[in-house]
Each structure stands twice: as C-alpha cells, then as structure tokens.
Amino acid sequence: MDPTSEWDDLNRAMGQLFMMGFDGTEVTPQIKILIERHYLGTILLTAKNLISAEQTTKLVLDLQTIAHNAGHPVPLAIALDQENGGVNSLFDADYIHQFPSAMGVAATGSTEMAFQIAKATAQALGSVGVNWIMGPVLDVLTNVKNQPLGVRTTGDDAEEVSRYGVAFMKGYKDAGIATCGKHFPSYGNLEFLGSSLDVPIITDSLEQLSLSALVPFRNAVSQGVDAMMVGGCAMSSAGIEVMHACLSQQVVDELLRDDIGFDGVVVSECLEMEALSHNIGVGGGTVMATNAGCDLILVCRSFAGQQEAITGMKVGVENGVITKSRIQNSLRRVLEMKAKCTSWEKALSPGGNSTPIYYLNTCKPTAKCVHSCEGVYTPACSPIVLLWPADLPIGTNTLSSLQPSHAKLSTKAYESSITVVRDKARLLPLSNILEPEEELLILSPLVKPLPASAASRDIMARHSVKSPTEYAQWEKSIASPPSNASGAALGMVGESIFKEFGRSIARQRNGRVLHTSYTANGVRPVHENLINRASAVIVLTADANRNLYQHGFTKHVAMICKSLFAQGVEKREKPFVVISVSSPYDFALDSSVGTYICTYDFTETALQALVNVLFGDLSPTGALPGTINQSQKVHQSKQHWLVENWNEQRDAEALDTLLQSLQQETPVSQRSELAGCSSSTFLIHHDSVDEAHFVVRNSSTRALYGFCSTYYFRSTGTGVIGAILVAPGRRKLSIGNSLHNRAIKALQQRGGIKRLQLGSRLPSVFLGIPSSSNLERKRLRRWFADMGWNTALSRPVCSMMMLNLSPWSPPADVARSLQHQDMQFDIVQGSEYAASLNDHVRTTSRQGMLEVYQLALADPSEGGIIRATRSNDEAVLGTVVVCTSKAKWADRMPALKASPQVTGGISSPIVSPSVGEYSTLLQGLILFGIQWVKNQQAEAVVLDHIDGDGNFDSLTAMGFKTMHSFDEVSCDADTMRASR
Q1: What is the pLDDT of residues 541-599, one digit of tens each?
Q2: Which helix (H) or strand (E) covers residue 878, if one does?
Q3: Which of 158, 473, 552, 734 is deepest in the core (most CB within 10 A)?
Q4: Is residue 578 classed as helix, strand or coil in its secondary structure?
Q5: Closest listed residue to residue 65, CA positions, set 512, 384, 445
Q6: Pick the CATH number of 418-481+488-623 from 2.60.120.10, 3.40.630.40, 3.40.50.620, 3.40.50.1700
Q7: Rounded to 5, what percent of the chain is helix, strand, coil?
Q8: Where are the alpha helices (DSSP H) in 431-487?
Q9: What gap in Å lies between CA 712 and CA 715, rounded to an integer?
C-alpha cells in the first residue's frame, strides 16, 4: 500500500482495524466517541440494535454521518449477521423477508436457489445501508450431535458445503455486499469441556482438516471471498498446539495466508468471549491477534473492553511489538474491501431512502461543489446534519419494490425445503387418515422464539417490551422452567411459537386441533389423557440431540401410540408423526420413527409450508443434506417416481434449467460434457431414428428432477440410452433408477431391436459412462452394473481437442508414412454421394454413424466427407466427417459450441476392415480434416468419437488432448436384466 497523507496519522489507521458493537437502537455516546475520537472503521450491528427497516436505515445513516463529520476518509463498514433461518439480526414483517437456514436451502437441492436467496438477502440489507454480511458459514458439520452450529451450516459433506457456500457468496457479491466466510478453520467438530471458561477444541490434525473441513474455505478463497473470520477455538493434535486459533500466527499467517493463499481481510473472534478474555485479556489478545495476521479485531460487547483493545494496540505499536508494516498491510486490505462495497455517496444515500437528504446551515461550500447549497448532498459538503421530514418513512422505498419478488422467493424456498424423510405407514396426507370430527394432537417443546420472527415481536408487544435488548432482559427474568402450574407465564411464551401453526392446521382440515407443550418433566398425566383422546399425534422437536428431554419425551409418546389402536381401524397403531423444526439429525437415523418430517427452522413461512405438506396441498421435494442421505438408501431405494413422456413445449425450458444447474455443479477444474448443451441438443429429428425421452418432474412447479433420452437406430437395430440426468439435490432418491427402468422397457418394446447401448454418437453428449476421474468412474460403473449392464465388456472412447491451429503442422513421421502409402484423399459434399458411401458406412455396426454421414452430406455449405481411396481404385478405404460450428447438425455436437474460439469438427472416422494400415490411414484422414478446418478459418478443432483401441497415443502425438473419456457399454437386447 502507498498510504496517502490522510492515513499518515497512525491513530486513524489503527481505528480502521477494529470492528465494534454497542447496545441500543439509537446512537449512544460510547459509539459516538469510538467513531469521532478513535476513528472506528467498522461496526457490527446485531438484533439488539435493530427494530425495523426504517429504524435501521436511520441508525446506519446517523452512524455514517458522524463518521463523515468526524473527517473519516472512507465510510464505515456496517456489518450484520443475516444467515436466515434462526440467525437474522434484522426482521421487518413488512419489508425484510425470511428465508430458510443454510441447511434448509441445501435441502432444496438447488445452488441457484441459494444464489437467489443470498442476493435477495443482500439487496434488503443494502437498502437499509448495510454493506457487509458476516457470511457465508463454511463449516463442515462432521460431528453432528453436539455442535451448536446446527442448521446454520449446509451439512456434513465438504463438497456440498463448498458448493452452497460459494453460491451464497456469489449472491451476496452480486448485490454489492462484502462477504465474510466463517468460522475458520472450522467449528464443525468441536469438543466442549464443559465450563464457559474452557475453550472448545479441534482435535483433528491438519491433514484431516485439509481433506474435509478446509475444502469449503479453499474454494471460497479461490472464488474471491472478501473476508474470513477466524474462530477462538483451541487446536490440539500432532503438528499443531494452539490456545486460540485467531491469536495464532500458525493458523492465520501460515495456514490461511500462505497455504490457502488468502489475501483478504481476516477478522478475529470477539476478544471479549469469556474463554479468551479471562485467560489473556482484551488488550493482550489484541496484540496477539494483530501479530497473528488478523486485520480486524472484533470487540463487540462492552465500552470498557473496546477501550482496552484500542489501548492495547497503541501500546503494542509504541513498544515495537506491532510493526507499522503490519498496520499498513491490514489497512490496505480493509480499504480494498471497503472500496468494493461502499462510498460516501452510497453511505449517505442508502438505496432504501424514499426522501432526499437535507442538511442544515452548516454546509461550507468549496470549489468542488457542483450546486448552490439547495439541500442536495454531494461528497463535497462537509460537515452535514441530517434532517428527515417527520411524516415520511425512511429506508423503505427500494424495499417496497423488492417486496413482491422476495415474498415469492421466500415461499418457493420454504416449500422446496420441507423434507419427508420417512413415511412407512403412509400417514400423509393426514386428511386420508383423519375424519373431520376426529381430533389431532400437537405436542410442542418450550423453545425461545427466533429473535427475528413475528412471534417474538408479538410477545414484545404483549408484554410492553420496546427493544430486543429489553426483550432479552425480560425473557431472562422468567427463564426458570416451570415445575407446576405456577409457571404458566413461561408456558405462554413457548406455546405462542406454535400456536399459529395449530390454528393453520385447524383451518386447513376444518377440524379440532388439541395443542399443549412439553418440558423436561416428561410425559405428564395431561399428555397421556390427550394422547388417549386424539386420533393422531404430532410431536415437534427442536435440536433433540442437544435437548435430550425432547428425545426421551418423543420416544415415550411413540411407545404409547404403538400400544393404542386408532379408532375404527382394526389392529392399526395410533398414527404418530415426528416433525423436527430445526436440526434434521434429531431422528434421521432412527427408523423406529415411521413418519419423520424436517422443516429446518420454525419461522411462520416454514410452518405454513409444513401445513400444506401435512394435508396434501404441497408435494414435499426436500432432501436431507450431505452424507446423512446415504442412511436413507434402504427406504428411498423403494421409491417409484412417476416417469412421464417428454413434452418439448412443456419441458424444454425446465430441461435448460436442469442442464444449467448440472453445469454449475461441475468443479471449475473439470470440463463438463454438458458444456454447450441445451434442450434441443437431445432432439435429433431424423427419419430413421425413433426418439423417446422421459422426465420426472414436479407437476406444480414444472421443475425437472430428472431427464432420460433414448434413441432407436433402425439402421443397426440398436436401442440407446443417450443420457440420464438427475438434479444435483435430488440424487440418491431413486429418480435415476425410475428413469432407467422406464427407458429399458420402452426400448425393448421396439420391433427388430437387437442390441442395447449406453452412450450415443448422435447426439454426441455422453459417448458412454463418463470416466472423468477414477472415483467417479467406479461409482458410475457400479451403479450401471447394479442396473443389469455388464460393465466388464466396455470399450474406451473419447473426444479430443486441439487448440491454436495457426502454427500447427503435421508430425514429420506421419507425413512420411502417408507418402509411402498408395492412397489419395479428397472431400465430397452433397447428398448425391450418399449412395456411394452407404456400403462403406455399413462396414461398421456402430449406431448413429449412418445418420451422422447423412446429416453432413445434407449440409454441404458447412461440411462434407473426407474419403481415402487407392490411387488406381475407387473403393473407399476410409472416411471422416468434417464441419464448421455453423453446420445445422453441429448442435448435436455440443463441444463445438462450448469453445470460446472459432472451432471446427472432425467426427465419426470409419476405416474399412480390409485395410491393414489402420493407424496410418486414421491419422491421414484426421490430418486432412485438420487442414480443411484450418481453411475454414477455425482456430481450434474438436475430434469426436475416437475408439481407444490403441488410437489415443497416436492422436496425442499429433497434438490432440483428451477432453472427455467414456466407457461404451452394450449388450444383447434379450439378455438385459432390467432392474425392478
């Protein structure tokens, strides 16, 4: 950094290196002092500061104005935790919409949904003046039972956490908000020793962390995350012994900076956390965190602690413990981040303002002013005092325009996240097992309302509580669990969360609903009486793995229901449903709970979507996140999805969306076979090919969960599965099985079918089972083997590419070999050559070849057939198809469309079986194909449909590189064992 004169003042520079919070919903004298005297550069707002969108906008604007008038060269970074689900600092029922938690979003199976939710969240925050979001959460939940993170993280699969984390991050950035990954190096596998003064410990080695927990952080860094929060946990394993990660140079400077390569802003854990402040002290912690490599020191609780932190840094600099270069490097990073997300023009005119900013008569015009001081702010006006007309709300103009789309997205997200993990007895929808006159019992735990929810605001209003801070104090005063009826006040608090849920159910079924709460006192006589009375029972749980009384209560109620029979039904247990409204891990692995549903949080929108699922108005499509899905394999393998015939008019757009989501799921380091594909790629429309494509879809939303293309090539009697595509979030749910079985059944019904094949040469998307990596190859081969294919009898095939054709020349040995052969090469174009080439093409029994040649000859302006013949004989020895990317049939060869360069294609080489010099002739055909493509001004060439029987090496020597490799599998139609 080359600091300008405005940063020569070390106090100004150091002020930019702190993030601090304060109590209250208005500017306090303490935070004003920190901004004006100590040049505090970043403020963390929490739920205790925020009441509504209007109040938040006013508060943020007041803070920015104080900084501007105090001479801050750059605006404040205003940070907020807004993870959705149960962690929302800002809630406004009219303007700020609630979205599912991170795990709830992952349950939708859509990274596009994650991106849109993150973007909407950031748009709302930006509209009230917030410019930095403390997210995404990148922790991998490798120890699911005892971790406080719960649904704040995507799950326990590192790659899945990484995909969704990056999608969230991109959504935030797209709306202009700075991002902060957390909690490095991971809070996903902490061990808690008990006391609040004991630091939670990570016992994983660096090698173990690198294989799992660090994967999302590495990917977030590679994709441009702006900041990273380092936790305050200890680390104890071979090779590393750290008391507090954020105070360790080994963790920050070496692991995060040097190993992972992060050069953004590093934020420390709050130095006032008890385990840290009691062991080291805030002042000493500030020095240690700064020297460890942290750029922003977080001190968010007390004014005394914040003053101690500032003093600690100053003393550290004065004593030479902290170098000025360390301060300057951190300042550079902070200023670079601020430049991306804010400016004085934005900070003093937030996007949500519905009125202009007025200033009172303290404006001092300068030569830079572009107006005559008529009440319109420009950055040249300083100092300023803000004045808002009393009768006009602020902070709601932009939010009003965003409200309809955000409301629609919120509803869609929640409806897509609800997950029916099991329904063994087929109790859903409940309307099928309950008559209107029968009673339904809901048993719910006493839990605190989510801070940002209508329930908590309703409680505040009923008890005359004006702010979140007062609410927390009031709630604490009544927090003792009731042991008898005298605790009714707390009962009302807990029950109010699910009261509206019960009302919604009553309205939906037009029947009686019983509702009561349960506590750590277990199943009481009142519960037993209600269970006996009801015709069906629902138990709600919220983090039962950490609140073990919920687990015990639920199991007890399940036992009672098993011993009772539903009225009017012979030998049928009383219907019993368990619904987890937070962590899905409560009973995910307990198959004794026959009907188990997960909502991932208990906001009003989530519970309304749950009601719609319970009574059949919504088909549940959510899926459990991460590896926990594997535990459901036994049950889910029995699912039979409705497979429908493809309808181009109805399904084309949805297939394009599915292809886009699959392309996004492909790691950046790999080239996807689907690059350049669209829904039209799979449609051949050829007279000699019978097409039949199938879909699994959501009939309500029209989204495709799966697609399968099949072709019957009458010329060879071959039935082909060209592709089986399943949406990333819907895998392991038997969708692929259902599509495969329907495809095989349809192909076997074709008259004259002789052979079945995996992989199609027309269209050229998947030439067989993809083998991009050994692990993926083994997994897919095993899956198809289980479906009845003999994968041991496979043939390697691939597609290749050569870039930068302009300097290319044929290898000398290839040219010499061709000179010694009695061969000549020419190109033929036009359908009049079809008859003369038919006999040659039929020397191969490979499906699609004849059709490729017919298409190429029918489009002579953009391609043709290069053929090889003997000098004294017109008999065709070999052929290959050539084309430009403008050829009509090139749409069926998507690799031509995927390349950013002007690309030509060489496809479907056929060498006569009578030719002894197979390799030489193949090289000759391709050599002349390259020359033809170069003459068409192409910069690159795609070589398609290459058999791997010793041909790969010779083509690599010519300059080709493999793009995609496959295992082509075929079998007799009569011997296929279709999986049932």
Answers
A1: 998 988 889 999 999 999 999 888 654 445 578 999 999 999 998 998 888 899 999 99
A2: strand 876-884
A3: 158
A4: strand
A5: 384
A6: 3.40.50.1700
A7: 40, 20, 40
A8: 454-462, 468-477
A9: 9
Q: What is the pLDDT of residues 152-188, one digit of tens each?
A: 999 888 999 999 999 999 999 999 999 999 999 998 8
Nearest to 712 by CA among 756, 763, 682: 756
Q: Name the pLDDT band for 94 (thresholds 50, 70, 90).
A: confident
Per the listing, tokens 């973007």 go with 119
Closest to 270 (Cα-Cα) out of 234, 243, 227, 306: 306
CA angle 839, 840, 846 (to 5 degrees): 100
Structure tokens at 156: 């326990």
DSSP string, 808-874: ----HHHHHHHHTS-EEEEEE-SGGGHHHHHHHHTT---TTHHHHHHHHHT-GGGEEEEEEEETT--
Give which of 270, 319, 259 is closest to 294, Cα–Cα.
Answer: 270
Domain 798-975 is classified in which CATH homologous superfamily? Answer: Gcn5-related N-acetyltransferase (GNAT) (3.40.630.30)
Relative to beta strand 18-20, strand 297-299 is parallel
At 865, give phi and psi (nearest 5°): -120, 120
The pLDDT tens digits for 609-648 are 999 999 988 989 899 988 766 444 333 444 678 899 999 9
- Which of 967, 615, 647 has its CA nearest to residue 785? 967
pLDDT at residue 817 greater than cutoff 80: no
Binned at pLDDT 50, 70 and 90, residue 362 comes out as: very low
Amino acid present at 922: L
Helix (H) or strand (E) holding 313: helix 303-318
Cβ-count burial 389-425 (b if 16+ within 10 Å, e if not): eeeebbbbbbbeebbeebeebbebbbbbbbbbbbbee
CA 281/CA 122 separation, integer angstroms: 35
- Please give, one letter per residue, the 3-state secondary structure of 226-238: CEEEECCCEEEEC
**For residue 877, which amino acid is it?**
L
Q: How many CB atoms lie within 10 A of CB 792?
A: 8
**CATH number for the domain running over 11-347:** 3.20.20.300
Contact present, 764 and 799 (Cβ < 8 Å):
yes
**3-class secondary structure per residue, 643-691:** CEECCHHHHHHHHHHHHHHHHHHCCCCCCCCCCCCCHHHHCCCCCCEEE
What residues have CB less than 8 Å from 261, skipping those under 6 apart? 221
Largest CA distance in the chain: 109
Is the CB of residue 534 less than 8 Å from the CB of residue 514? Answer: yes
The CATH 3.40.50.1700 domain(s) of the chain lie at 418-481+488-623
Q: Classify the C-alpha dihedral 637-641-647-653 as positive or negative.
A: negative
Mapped onto helix, strand or coil, the DSSP state of residue 738 is helix
Name 515's bridge partners. 442
- Residue for token digits 């605190």? 448
Domain 644-797, second-level architecture = 3-Layer(aba) Sandwich (3.40)
Q: Within 10 Å of residue 562's Cβ, how many Cβ atoms?
A: 13
Q: Is the CB of residue 220 less than 8 Å from the CB of residue 140?
A: no
User: For residue 98, which of 603, 613, 611 has the smallest C-alpha distance?
Assistant: 603
